[in-house]
Records
---
Amino acid sequence: MVTTLTTTNIKLDPKFIAQTIQDIQPHWGPLGWVTYKRTYARWLPEKGRTENWAETVQRVVEGNINLDPRLHDQPDFKLIKELTLEAQQLFKLIYGLAATPSGRNLWISGTDYQKRNGDALNNCWFIAIRPQAYGQSHIVPEYLQPEQVAVSMPFSFLFDQLMKGGGVGFSVVKNNIRQMPAIDQPLELTVLIDSKNKDYQESCQLGAVDKKQWLRDHSLTDSYYYELPDTREGWVLANARVIDFHFNQTNLQHKNKLVLDISKIRPRGERIKGFGGTASGPMPLIEMLFDINTLLNHRVQQQLSAVDCTDICNLIGKTVVAGNVRRSAELALGSGDDADFITMKQDQTQLYHHRWASNNSINVTKNLTDYQPIADAIQENGEPGIVNLNLSQNYGRIVDGYQPGIDQQVEGTNPCGEISLANGEPCNLFEVFPYIAEKQNWDLTEAFTLATRYTKRVTFSNYDWEISRKIIQQNRRIGVSMSGIQDWILSKFGNRVVTGFNDQTHQPIYDQRAVDCFNQLYQAVVAADQNYSQQLHCHPSIKHTTVKPSGTVAKLAGVSEGMHFHYAGYLIQRIRFQDSDPLLQALQQCGYRMEPDIYTEHTICVEFPVKAPNADNPNFASAGSVSIAEQFATQAFLQTYWSDNAVSCTVTFQNNEANQIAPLLEQYRQIIKSTSLLPYYGGSLKQAPKEPITKTQYQQKQADIADNVNVVFDQMQDQQDLELVDQSDCAGGACPIK
């Protein structure tokens, strides 16, 4: 098969793609094609429509394969041939939905945006909230030298990554917060806007003032003046000034007046060309700047607390959410003995204003002996989550034993908890669906090898921040994951992985066949990384495997999400669409039930009947029936034999199981690196995202669906850049779509 090549760019041949489309049928789940079309299919202006699946996969694979650094040095024919064959295998793997890269890659890989912003391929990041230097980064305030330490830097990093669609975990543990200097002076903040700006009236209602009139009546000689460009960086730099000018070390002229001119910020509703979507206008930024400035002014002559720093991060996250194309995912990690941090969400006013913007977790140490207060808090509001940094720093897989300092620089996690990260480091994910891969006759070793090489190439992206470039080059951390784990184990072995518990010790008993299988696949990933690292002359990855929570991506293939059990064997999955979405007409024509969303205006709630694979198997268990003890044991199994990073898991529990939370947290404290818990609601809320139903109800609802929505929609006129309202890349809704 002839492939179009240049010395630096590999392209998949159209004939190869056409043949693959004939040979392979994508394994769409019940929600798969609809989810794909409204979440990952990019608009093609030259064709007047959104991408089809083959075009998306081609874009993604070509964007990734051309990250191989050897292509920059006039590669020989042998290398080009090898990488072309690999690209073809990747295309087959992903096109058939036996595996996919992260949702971020499905959206960004192969676009011009990827070339401009290498960070965009990584889902999530971590930053320690303490004074740091910007270094040689794309954002450096002009009043600072690159190596000058500034309080604003971690907040700027968080703001920038959230604005690029990434989630950010951040640490406000006591060792970080005690490094914050006391605030030296209050700051008088003025926000100017030109009367010609379309958002003038709304901006003035939030505290902005008329630019022309203010400049006529005031002098700038005793003020800092900054005119924001209409860029992401402009928003970040404006906030950096608000923070830094409260501190003498970064306010060398000791001026206490800051004037920010927002006149150039594009008004609400205008298109964002690079990332996609529409602009929110300057209003969320105005509100954030005044809120953060007020918080800092109230702390003059005091050090910021963990709660203060979390509030600043939450206010930033709230601002990012206000743009309708992005969602903000934050995880705040505090100290286990910081009572103010642990209880900060009990302030209902602050919670509804901005503290909802992060999931809060605590770092548990070996000194913690009483888990009951934590269990009580979890039972009340589902927080805090649990993170054990000591385990992450000194262990890969638990079965491989204590390895002192194997990952010593770890300070936190991404928002979903499956990757432990160093300061400035991102997660880098790809997931294989073994249940689907084996049905499509893939050798799993080959599938996981392709996944390993894909993620390794992502580490050669052009990263914006110096702190990230350094740690990525050092660690080359990857996260090869798998989803549909429960489907696969039950299908392959005929039973669940936990076959029982020891009556005396309560330790779980695992199916030895599963132990051997997971161990073999882990070794295949490590071997693939070592081999590719030698070829690329780079460090082997410090860690390799994980279990991400999945969500939207798992829906594509219709498998269980990450390690989680299906919510129910049969259920109604509700998905919300903007009322202008053209998919609604096709869904209605096909017979799907829909109604106005009771929570959000201009939104339609559509019901999809779903049957889990193996739902009729006598050993099938759902989140509503599996015990809390078995869920903990399953997470421990994956942390022991598969993941050398961590395992994302949200354990669901029934009311009568709440008394087991503390004992189970203590039992697995030296095995599980991170976990969270939520009560099982069972679809009791109105228009719940998931509602269990009976097999008979499922069959009745399925019978009402008369046509294939793929076919019907393709016959209708497509439209540009509309969003699926409530999808996320992770099962818990924490990580961003794109």
---
Amino acid sequence: MFRRRLRLSAAAGAGLLIAATAATLGTPPTVAAPVDDPVVQVTIDSFGPVAPTPGEDVLIKGTVRNTSTETLDAPQALACIDRTHRLSTAAEIAAVSAEQDVAMNDRNSCSRMTTPDTGVFQQYDAPLAPNASLQFSLKVPWNEWRISHQTGVYVVGVVVRGTPQGEERLTVGRARTLMPVIGDQPLTRMVNTALIIPLQHRPTQLGGKRFTNESLAESMAPNGRLGRLLALGNGRKVTWLVDPATLDEARRIVKDGYDVGAGGTPTPGAGRVVVDAWLKAFDASRASGNQVVLLPYGDPDIAGLLDAGDQLKELVYDARRTTERFSLPPGFTNGLWLEGGAAASRYLGPASRGFPGASDDDLNLVGSGSWPAVERAGLTTTSPVYDIRTPEAPWDTVRTVVADSALTAGGPDPDTGENPIQVRQRFAAETALIAASGKGSASVVAVPPRGWDSTGRATAALAGDLSLRWINATSVKQVVAGTPRPPVIKAPAAPRSNAIMSSDQLDGVKQLDQATTTFKDLLTNPAEDLPEAMPQALLRSASISWRGFPDEAKRFAAVELGSVNLQLSKVHLVNNAVNGEHREIKVNLAGSKGTFPLTITNDTDWSVRVGIVVSPTNRTDLRIEPQQTRILAPKQKFTPRINASAEQNGLIRASAQVITGSGRPVGKSQELLIQASQYGSVGWILVGAACALLFGTSFVRIYRRIRTERRHPSPAPSSEPAVDEQATPDALHPEPLDPPSADAPAGGSLREGVGSKDG
């Protein structure tokens, strides 16, 4: 006994330390339950009737599993009730303590019922060994509850006791639930209830027929999550909340079949028949009158994208525009689903109205759990439709449906949020109090929270409660139409950052967005030529449905990025490979100004508009005339002449970059080696010196000839008979010089040649 008490004290001290730490950090403390060995796990598997009336017996069945390391002798299962508190409001239900800071043996809020021979407790002869289980079935007569005949809600449950070896009998486990009691006085009104069932799955299509895995088809099987959820629409009025990307992937599987595998050789998919049957059942449910609300395409992380800024916030509007154009005849409601911090006005305002096609008929859905409990209490039960103030947006308010998060919260004990029985009892208790609390119309909307109910069984329990006699099943559209003038309320407050995606996932989305935008800008006619799969894959990469699958999310974005980059790499500069490797492009630039060719090839299947930008990397004297962009047809090449100039000769390193029509770079730049061969200032000095030498030599030569003629003048003319004119030399026109004769001495100088009449 001393050992057990010592453990309890140490555990209680640890719990206080955890609470103090959480208070310092400004977060609600989650206090761990004190350790009180041994402890068993108690689960309520069935409870009926859901809402008993005075005089009805209640049958409780469940399971006990010994999770301790000690054997328990003489175990007992006993029904219990907190008869001191009849809960009459939703606030009182929410205030029921989970008693997590109280040792199991000291929890006495649910009093044990021990009347013999009444079925309120069950004794077991065999001991309960570690990891062993036993079943209990307790039938509690109405009189044993010892409660009034008034309508209200009570906390009831099952307590398990046992005797550890060498110690006295202890309470070793407990499970509680809510029991609504419909009293002798009739309920005062019906509760119009719209149950919204989300139909969505994380993205699996990698492009074309390639899918990452079989998870979508497996989920759409009759025993899969989407299969179970869709079956809830059979014979019931529900509202479907659907990600159109999930429908697109399912349609693709049915149309052409599919292959499975993220890498290597894919294998043929095996779920085509199953997916086809699911789509047909979905169409049949729509035809029966069940409303369909389509989420933004891919169901993106609205808060994360808007917080990321200009580059990614446009994806929110792209997702909404894509849904607006989605094909789902005869029609659907365009919707938005926000929870928690993502419901703040800085997200709700832009995401609800900031896209072409936005309408007052769009459904903006927010869970009431987004508000603190104090503010939540001000929400009415008359109608869940409100005008929420959005001061950050150009419009003052946004028409919003606030779903009651309490309807899906489960029982008073922790970790029961997805237990079907606990969910069913909580829903029945909350709506029963609404039905008994006033007159006139009352409407509620129930939607399971995101990431809730991985099997679909808890949602099935909700759908089953639509048959309760005070419930009038309806659609969200009818609820909204019944509230012509909703009250105005403030949006919930939110932390600075509310992204669901991790930073790594956001980085992957940014890279894919940049590549996709570049390819779109490259196309001559992007409205018609851009493959539909590219923007769809981008929106899928930002899906909030990736929560819980971070590795798959990163692989998906990486594969899609590689696909876009493959198309971009088909528009590039021609560069002949040397030994299979691409090298720098070598060009020559002769003269102070010159041209050199570069060739762009377009190996895609679309016309593109391209240009080239050349930039020096090691010098600043290279000047390149801007190039005009040009349309390049599919499978064609274009060789523009690049006009360049350099002030100095030598080797210039530069980069050539293919660009889109708006100047976005396409792929990697190509290295250029430019050999500039032209005259600089030193060259002009040499040219001047050469000219001076040439003209100086000519002047010396003429001067020497004149001087020689003056020293040796020609004889004066005589009166003798004239001789032949050809034999008489003219001083002003001397005869041309003849080449040296064979008799002339070798190595005659220039001076001798000039002074000789014969030479």
---
Amino acid sequence: MPSEREGVRMLDRRTGGSARAYELLEPLVQAATVRVHPAPGGYADRGNHPTWGSGFFVAPGWVLTCAHVVGEGGAAVRLVGREIGITFSSGPRTTGTVTGRVECVLPERLEERRPARHALWDLPDLALVRVLAPVSHACVRLTDRARPRLDEVAYFGCTEDLGIPEITGRTTRLRGTAAGGAALRLGDDDEIEPGMSGGPVVDLGRGEVVGVVKARRHTGGGGLAVSVVQLRTLPLDAAGQIGLYRRVMQAHDLYHYDEHLSDLDSRRTWTDVHGELPAADPYGGPRLTPAEITTLCGLLAELPPPGSSEAVRALVEAARGEEPDPALPAPLSWRDGLGMLHDPPGGTGEAAAMLRYATDISVADHREPPAPGADEELWDWVRATAERLWRPLRRELGERHDLGLAERERRRRARAGRPAHGPGRPAQAMPQGPSVLLEAWAHGWEDVYDWRVSVLAGPSHPGRLTPVGSGVRVTRAGLPEALRDSLAEAFRRCDTHEALAALEVAVAPELFGLPVDTWTVTGRVPLGVQRPVVLRYPAGSGGHAAGSPPPDPEAAHRRADRWSRVQTGPLLDERADCAHGRPRSPSPAWLDGLADNTVPVHCRAADQEPTLGSLHAVREAGYGVAVTRRPPADPGESCAPFHRGLREELTEAGHGAPLPVRLQALRARSHGADPDAYWSDGTALVWDDPARALPEDEPLQGDL
């Protein structure tokens, strides 16, 4: 343990290093920080606009700020599409003013539900603004790390100490995180002044922007900032599109890459300053230099974005030697994966992990052809960079590259005759990659539920389950709001450019009436319209629970046969809980005697008899595909149109594989007010795929 004198010397070195870092970074941050105010209007506008807050350029033409800043001056004004004014540095001691348009706010629900005046806005409280005129400006350097260090930082924003708006900075320490890492706690070393909201928070040790100033304490200094990693929660675009987050981050990395390569002026760039900062960890393993990191990020940005978050995580796992922390936000770009490779485990060098990752990307099958020579340029850079390290790594990377090329060629030959970058699943079939699993458990006779949201890896990694979020004792009415953020994060991890991942809802049959397909997570489109949503029996519901004797082999064989026959078709429908509109309870002998390609159909409430007993009996009889529905509000309404319409659907489908997607299309038609699809309202598909094993455990019930 250091002596008091040694401790003082260590503090002096830290403080001196931070002071030097602030001195180096201040001009770069000030040049990219802006003042946000009402939009300039007309020739009579004299520019005397009240300050709403601050923001900062994160990419050419893109400003990041807080949602409450762009919502200033009009609580009833719609945020997205609103035009605001942005005053920025356009050169030494000169400023310019331009109009910006709000393109997106986080969370999206702020459009419908604003907080009361002077109340904190919901996290993450971010807004992306697009500048509406071509202007020349500086951009900050954003961190690629999902978790910030609790160290010294500087925060910047617009102040009016002398009655003149100007961008100033203060220093403090990060004191911790809040809201699961979405918010950063700023120390009380100095005061956050009005107008600084929306400004950048910079890690002085690494020279990266890690947060956005959100709020100050009412008493004393300090306050809250929003982690910039929350940008990953930007709404994902439809399948086949790149998405706003990936476009902005691609532009961010290319900006700094171009700045680093340019020799048009001698001004310090962020990369130059990073090379002058005191070493954050002088005793760490080999690391890439700031210039190498900038170059690598630029080369990755020139490639097509990854097909899915899980594709990034798989490459990170291969480069790190272990599965990345499942609690980290979904990596949506190649640079996000790079940020998961800092400080790898087991003494593995950081530089080696990053070069392995880059090698694997250079031989990846991209969703669309990269620009000619882009993947070869990345590999050439990896090989040249490895020259300064050690011979065994150079040999390992060469072998890794050769094996990757051979595997890519094998996959391309296997796809011969099919579109090289076409859909990742057969037409009208469930996506075969990772899916989102929602589990819910009732508390006995209480009307409260425990829940868990996970990523189910599927056949590629049988049995792998990655938890995303969980909760306890939530009312049925409160489930949609309680689950919203976890579901959104899980979808970000699973969705690909080719298809949106399925949602598998594993609940007891009495909860089969839970209207999950009508919930909205992002935007205004219900889940059942966006993506396939299917019901599943929870693990162990077929008579086999964790720790119990294995199931009857004959029963397992019967379930496999019936699943296979339904997938082959043709499909036969059979009313299980009604006969000509009258309720009935099917006997086990009757169910056993049906053809293996039968789809049992239920038209009554799942939590009441005879339907509840029928759903259990259908599962016991080995039927992995069945249909149920939430009955209409009018108990006197005939179920005949439902059975008639469903029979037509099953006949047209021909076999089981298209059913989840056909039901999604039916929901879309009904949502679009197609009267010919109204019979399908409330229809749900039980889809108990034996190839997608569910976990056997249940969460502990009770308060945590």
